[in-house]
Design a protein that fits this description.
seven-stranded mixed sheet; Quinone Oxidoreductase, Chain A, domain 1; six-stranded parallel sheet; alpha/beta; 17 strands; Rossmann fold
Length: 397
């Protein structure tokens, strides 16, 4: 028998009772860098103009959450207490003035990479960034105030436009994507949680940024969720050879099931990794993807691509002040390098179609979900990711 839809999960959900009111609910609050998450009561204020309040049903943990929790970079250390989280799915509880593309009861995913649809960046086909709602300044909402408060009225900082480690959250409408109607099935909604960041970032890097072509060769540095999503994207595009590079040998079995055809553990190699890849790919790969956020790895990724046409895509987040480890003259040999954010997807306008492709099996979302836990076990879920034992742990709220 098919799994029941969300009727049981939403048995206490009645927007008419909460619309326009402060909601008291559970959230995972952190009071300092690397401190344990505390599940406690918080107050979530109503959405203001162009905002949406969402009842979160599922959320998951990304390495960007871990980096921010560790207060990297240093400038983030002041923003506590805080509610992290940016991968989730849920249902719209209420909307603020001016919001007309989603309404109460719609199933949605929040996204950190906004698309207002009106600024000069959103109306340009060459970029998926938005100048109206940036992800770089997201500790409060657009009016400079929080929508989260402790029960003694102290403000709680937001995170990456989303703050999904809470039973309810408030986000700008530019950061809300309406899902297909079939998302009212619990199994489907749980999978689509992954589109908020990791899978979209990796698959999009292969499809939108690199435009991997059939028969091409690919090297992926770092086989976490994003790296494996790159592999999924390259596999779906018909890449002939997908080389995975990681220092954790336990990742190789999972990677093989997700499209990786060759493996390299840098710890086992006597020569530079880029030389090994050149030997394996007749002089270098067509596309290399740096998914680890390590500048030394970035250099290997760049030099592993083929002279004349090789393209390196930076997918990992580089938080240190180090600059690119590349001499300008090395670019004269025809290799190129480009950054990728959110896989080049324009969230509100392009993610619904991508969701349909995932549901049709073009991308196998189930393979990314390695663990599921109740929300109150969030500290355990964090440690699983830090220890390299999980790809994505889905938390049930």
């Amino acid at each position: 028998m098919a799994e029941k839809k969300n009727n049981n999960i939403l048995r206490n959900f009645n927007p008419s009772e909460t619309r326009g009111k402060i909601i008291t609910c559970k959230a995972a609050v952190v009071y300092g860098p690397e401190e344990a998450f505390k599940i406690e009561e918080v107050e979530v204020h109503p959405p203001q103009k162009m905002e949406v309040r969402i009842k979160i049903l599922f959320t998951s943990i990304c390495h960007s959450d871990v980096d921010a929790w560790k207060a990297q970079p240093e400038s983030r250390r002041a923003f506590y207490p805080r509610i992290f989280g940016h991968e989730a799915s849920g249902i719209v509880e209420s909307v603020g003035e001016g919001v007309n593309d989603v309404r109460e009861g719609d199933y949605v995913v929040p996204i950190f990479q906004a698309e207002c649809g009106e600024c000069k960046l959103c109306t340009c086909e060459k970029t998926n960034t938005c100048e109206s709602v940036s992800y770089t300044n997201t500790v409060m909402l657009s009016d400079g105030k929080s929508r989260f408060y402790t029960t003694d009225a102290k403000p709680i900082f937001h995170f990456l436009n989303t703050s999904t480690f809470s039973e309810y959250t408030v986000v700008h409408s530019a950061c809300v994507v309406k899902l297909p109607s079939v998302a009212d099935d619990t199994r489907i909604l749980k999978r689509l949680t992954l589109l908020s960041c990791g899978v979209t970032t990796g698959v999009g890097a292969a499809w939108n940024v690199a435009n991997v072509h059939s028969g091409s060769t690919v090297a992926i540095f770092g086989l976490g969720s994003v790296g494996l999503a790159v592999a999924e994207g390259a596999r779906a595009r018909g890449a002939s050879k997908i080389i995975g590079i990681d220092i954790n040998p336990h990742k190789f079995i999972k990677a093989q099931a997700m499209g990786v055809t060759e493996f390299i553990n840098p710890k086992d190699e006597e020569k530079p990794v880029y030389e090994k890849i050149r030997e394996m790919s007749e002089g270098g790969v067509h596309y290399s993807f740096e998914c680890s956020g390590n500048s030394d790895v970035l250099r290997d990724a760049f030099l592993s691509s083929h002279e004349g046409w090789g393209l390196t895509v930076i997918v990992g987040i580089h938080l240190t002040p180090k600059t690119l480890p590349i001499h300008p003259m090395e670019l004269f040999y025809g290799r190129r390098i480009v950054g990728s954010m959110f896989g080049g997807f324009k969230g509100k306008s392009q993610l619904p179609h991508f969701a349909q492709q995932c549901l049709q099996g073009v991308v196998k979302l189930d393979d990314f979900i390695t663990h599921e836990l109740p929300f109150h076990d969030i500290n355990e879920a964090f440690q699983l990711l830090i220890a390299g034992k999980s790809l994505r742990c889905i938390l049930h709220l």
